[in-house]
Amino acid sequence: MDKDLKKVVVLLAHPNMEKSQANKALIDAINDIEEVAVYNLYEMPADDVFNMDAWSRIISHATAVIYQFPFYWMSAPSLLKQWQDRIFTHLAKTPAVAGKPLMVATTTGSEFDAYRSGGRNGFTVDELLRPYQAGAVHGGMMWQTPFVVYGMGTPDAERNIAKGVDLYKKKVVAFVGEDKTEDVW
């Protein structure tokens, strides 16, 4: 499970990657980056998902953590919450996470304008992700601006995915520290 202990740990929480378009494309874009380990919580045996010793090693070695998921009812699929409750709750009390960046990478069915004050959903994605930010701050992590690919349920989905893939790869490469020439934040 340790995947040779990489710099960037991506906790992917997608219950149906076979049918995913956007999250699959995002993962495909970063799979070839040597210092990135992707853990799809929904494809792991439960014993591994909740193995405190393994996660302590993995997160302690990492320099950045990314939670990646489709935005389900203004949050992540439930297994990420369970992982937070059982693993992150413990890690937040240790030096394992302190000072490390935490970024949420998510995809939405609705377009960007739906996530505005007065928009169809009534709140920005930043506002809706506040509990993740609070958890990061509580654990001493450095909260990063969420990475969002909007509009998977719109006619612009393919264009949005293509643009998102390029930007996501640049952000992840910046976390690895391989790209010193371009500030993608």
Task: Write a compact overview of the structure shown.
Helices cover 38% and strands 16% of the residues. It is an alpha/beta fold. Helix 1 runs parallel beside helix 7 and helix 3 packs across helix 4.
Jot down its keywords.
single chain; 185 residues; alpha/beta; Rossmann fold; six-stranded parallel sheet; 7 helices; disordered C terminus; electron transfer activity; NAD(P)H dehydrogenase (quinone) activity
- Overall average pLDDT: 93
Share of helix among residues?
25-40%
Task: Count every helix, treating DSSP H or I runs of 4 or more residues as helices.
Answer: 7
In whole angstroms, the N-to-C terminal distance is 30 Å
Keywords: Oxidoreductase
InterPro entries: Flavodoxin_fold, Flavoprotein-like_sf, KefG/KefF
Domain Flavodoxin-like fold: 6-171
Protein name: Flavodoxin-like fold domain-containing protein
